Amino acid sequence: xxxxxxxxxxxxxxxxxxxxxxxxxxxxxxxxxxxxxxxxxxxxxxxxxxxxxxxxxxxxxxxxxxxxxxxxxxxxxxxxxxxxxxxxxxxxxxxxxxxxxxxxxxxxxxxxxxxxxxxxxxxxxxxxxxxxxxxxxxxxxxxxxxxxxxxxxxxxxxxxxxxxxxxxxxxxxxxxxxxxxxxxxxxxxxxxxxxxxxxxxxxxxxxx
Length: 208
Known about the structure:
Strand order of the largest sheet: 1-2
Order of helices and strands: HEHHEHHH
Strand content: under 5%
Radius of gyration: 18 Å
Shape: globular
Number of strands: 2
CATH architecture: Up-down Bundle
Number of domains: 1
Number of helices: 6
Low-confidence stretches: 1-5, 200-208
Largest sheet: 2 strands, antiparallel
Helix content: 55-70%
């Protein structure tokens, strides 16, 4: 995969902060998933089919990183220190958004599409801006990473991740509609799915 090629103190600091932002998100989300399993949260509704989506996703990442030669990405790689700095800043903003959403979600957080006995519909904080703010934040971090790396293979990684999230959120929203019915449909109609302001991606299961 193509990387920013600049050297020096400034580039080194960018690499350090870039690593820190992603590490914080991984630790928080994985830690939250493990904590939920330790607590033994019982589920009333569960969609297991989306668990298999990570297999082709992992295969795509492996092909991009280890199989496709680096030279393939050179024509669409534009490594610039200012682009890396901009990308690092967007990654930071995305990280903050993910953490805010995770904190707002509380014990509702689960790794797979699950409705637990204690689940409640959250529509406050970042959930007033998009219905899936954790996904929004991660996509923002990946967009920032794409700028940080100067495009290249990260363009495909961003698109592949977007596809995985679309599959997962469709499963999540079906469960939420089953649980909250008209209340969630009204929430869909008033709140964008992933991108703030953009509402045309709304999934209205009532019309299907």
